[in-house]
Amino acid sequence: MQTTWKGTISFGLVSIPVHLYSATQEHDVPLHQVHAKDGGRVRMKRYCEREEKEVPYAEIAKGYESPDGRTVTLSDEDLADLPLPSKKIIDVLAFVDEGEIDPLMFSKAYYVGVADKAAAKPYALLRDALTDSGQIAVTKIALRTRESPAVLRVHDNTLVLQTCIWPDEVRPAAGIAPEDDVTVRPQELKMARSLMDTLSEDFDLSQLHDDYQQALQQVITARLEGVEVPHEEEPGEAPDNVIDLMEALRSSLKQAKGGRGGGAGEAGEAGAEEEPAPRKRAPAKKTAAKTVPKSSGATSGKGATKTSAKSAASGSTAKKTTTRKPSSPRKAS
Questions:
Q1: Is residue 294 pLDDT above 70, yes or no?
Q2: Does the pLDDT value for residue 293 go beyond 50?
Q3: Which of 76, 172, 215, 324 is 20 to 30 Å from the Cα of 189, by its Cα?
Q4: Residues 154/165, Cβ–Cβ less than 8 Å
Q5: CA 52-53-57 angle, 5° bins
Q6: Does 289 have pLDDT greater than 50?
């Protein structure tokens, strides 16, 4: 593995000579620019505007143009000899909990290896101290033409240096999130948590793969072989608004559990967590009145017999005779 940087970790009075190695690599399909008309390769040439000719790479330097139009030329030696303490030293400034660093600030990662055998013990000391404390070390480092804050942490029993951007380089998020006062019901939150738990079951990050790279390779292969280029079916239009959030959550949970072998019963249990709908008042039941003997003084006829509000308060039961055309129930006055 090629060395990216050589220097020393300064941990108090302890010095650890180390080398940095790039910890990540991209696997993009290499593409270059061509003339769309005939496929001819398009190349970028280094062209000097003053001499109006192409110049070799060895004569290329970096420059800065001031607001008044003057240009300052900076050679590689100028950049290498900057009066910068972090040029060859990774100075540990503090130890903090990992949660104190916003992941939005993380940039490129480098494996940290020892430069010689004498550095093995202080290397192991710093690594084990970070592991036991559960903390990360905050540092600064100058790589190429940029000084960056960085953190030292442990990954697979190896120290990793992760460069960061400066705090003032993080753009504010004001005005992006919904500004309306949105209320989320506890039942909706509970259903969302159930969906999160279901999607997280048996998840293995190492099983993810680059679908874009595979699709691009299929198109390239089809072009080389002169066959029809594969096309993906156009997805249906996504809804532009959420009509029923609970129904969407319930359907998502059912689909997720179905994909993991869950039965309909599980989805039903999750759906039972929804807030019960408000109960509707049951309509009044019609009770057929028993036949009353004539001796009771009740008057027989087609009309329905009703009790007054006074008799209802005394606990008597309203009686009605059943007819073919029942009258509408009236409220007690």
A1: no
A2: no
A3: 172
A4: no
A5: 130
A6: no
Task: Inform me whether the pLDDT recorded for 56 exceeds 70.
Answer: yes
Q: How many CB atoms lie within 10 A of CB 8?
A: 16
* Residue 140 near residue 149 (C-beta atoms within 8 A): yes
Distance in angstroms (rounded) separating the CA atoms of residues 174 and 169:
15
CA 270, distance to chain mean position in Å, is 24
Extract the tokens encoding 242: 């959420």
pLDDT in tens, 62-109: 999 999 999 999 888 887 777 776 678 898 999 999 889 999 999 999
What does the block give as tokens for 332? 């007690």
Beginning with the edge strand found earlier in the chain, give each strand of the sheet holding 158-164 in spatial order.
89-91, 3-11, 14-22, 106-114, 158-164, 146-155, 135-143, 94-97
Residue 310 has pLDDT above 70, yes or no: no
Question: Parallel, antiparallel, or unpaired: how do β-strands 89-91 and 53-54 relate?
Answer: unpaired
HEC letters along the chain? CCEEEEEEEEECCEEEEEEEEECCCCCCCCCCCECCCCCCECCCCCEECCCCEECCHHHCCEEEECCCCCEEEECHHHHHCCCCHHHCEEECCEEEEHHHCCHHHEEEEEEEEECCHHHHHHHHHHHHHHHHHCEEEEEEEEECCEEEEEEEEEECCEEEEEEECCHHHCCCCCCCCCCCCCCCCHHHHHHHHHHHHHHHCCCCHHHCCCHHHHHHHHHHHHHHHCCCCCCCCCCCCCCCCCCCHHHHHHHHHHHHHHHCCCCHHHHHHHHCCCCCCCCCCCCCCCCECCCCCHHHCCCCCCCCCCCCHHHHHCCCCCCECCCCCCCCCCCCC
Reported as a pLDDT band with limits 50, 70 and 90, residue 305 is very low
pLDDT band of residue 213 (cuts 50, 70, 90) is confident
Tokens representing 293 are: 């003997």
Long-range contacts, stretch 199-206, CB < 8 angstroms, 24+ apart: 199/256, 201/260, 202/260
